[in-house]
Write a structure and sequence with these properties.
single chain, 12-stranded mixed sheet, two-stranded antiparallel sheet
Length: 299
């Protein structure tokens, strides 16, 4: 599952290119999250890294959150000022279902790392961003099976003037999603993110609705990449794209992968004058008189 090697005690460290590293615990190694955090801090490669990925921090992912790792980085922030990219929660389903990942509070960490440019978070249980004022963050992505409105509200209240990429996975109500389309409409405003060029509202049961939010927004003209992937986009949404084609000519790419559109609609979208990804077409599941569609990531 991992390309790296453990250090003999169950703590894994996998190199990612020339200046990146992933840290993780082996299953049932018996090491606490606090000890795992200490091992990251003591890694002799740390001063040379630009990118850090945090995998399993609990050897059984039995409920202990990532807080000790975040606290370690915040408390020793002088040793992490050179880090550009941070991904917390790079955990496969075979290791832990996404809904079981216990996240943490990122307010202090973001304050302590003013040079961070990219933050990717997987899992939403226990997730809080808090009050965010960050001059240099360019990318924010939250991957989850159920996005809480509290997290969306944190982003709405944030000061992120340099943000260029925002990707939010919605998920479903059973796993914590409690947002409305109006919450996303409040986010998709150019006054909030004057430099945003990549916007992804993804992984939704109402992917057609989220698409409509973006198409109706005043941030649309500045976007280069429109991402409505991983959800239940139907021919209704596809037709909305076609109807809006006159104001989409500036796009470089439309990502509509993992969808429920017909072959005919896919062909029409691929004829648009920019790159269109309509891969991973799904089939509606029919049971009796009911039909079902599912986002890509739920549990």
């Amino acid at each position: 599952m991992h390309d790296g090697e453990t250090n003999g005690s169950g703590i894994g460290m996998a190199k990612l290119g020339d200046d990146g590293k992933k840290y993780y615990l082996e299953f049932e190694c018996g090491i606490s999250t606090e000890e795992f955090a200490d091992q990251i801090l003591c890694d002799p490669d740390l001063p040379n890294l630009k990118s850090i990925v945090i995998g399993m921090w609990d050897d059984e992912m039995g409920g202990e959150g990532v807080g000790p790792v975040l606290d370690m980085m915040e408390g020793n922030s002088e040793k992490f000022q050179h880090i550009d990219k941070l991904f917390v929660g790079d955990i496969e389903a075979e290791e832990c279902e996404i809904s079981w990942i216990q996240q943490g509070d990122y307010e202090g960490l973001l304050q302590a790392l003013p040079n961070l440019k990219s933050l990717q978070i997987k899992g939403s249980d226990g997730l809080a961003l808090g009050k965010i004022r960050h001059e240099n963050l360019r990318e924010l992505e939250i991957i989850c099976g159920g996005l809480p409105v509290s997290v969306v509200n944190d982003i709405k209240a944030a000061y992120l003037p340099a943000l260029q990429k925002l990707v939010l996975f919605s998920g479903i109500e059973d796993y914590g999603y409690d947002c409305s389309l109006s919450d996303f409409a409040d986010l998709a405003k150019k006054e909030r993110f004057p430099h945003l060029t990549y916007l992804g509202f993804t992984n939704s049961e109402d992917q057609d609705g989220l698409l409509r939010v973006i198409l109706d927004s005043d941030i649309l003209p500045q976007l280069e990449i429109l991402d409505v992937s991983c959800g239940c986009l139907t021919d209704e949404g596809g037709q909305r794209i076609l109807d809006a084609a006159g104001k989409l000519g500036h796009l470089k790419k439309l990502d509509a992968s993992h969808h429920y559109m017909s072959e005919g609609m896919m062909e029409k979208l691929q004829a648009l004058p920019f790159a269109v990804d309509v891969s991973d077409a799904q089939t509606v599941y029919v049971y009796g008189d009911e039909s079902y569609m599912y986002p890509m990531i739920t549990e």
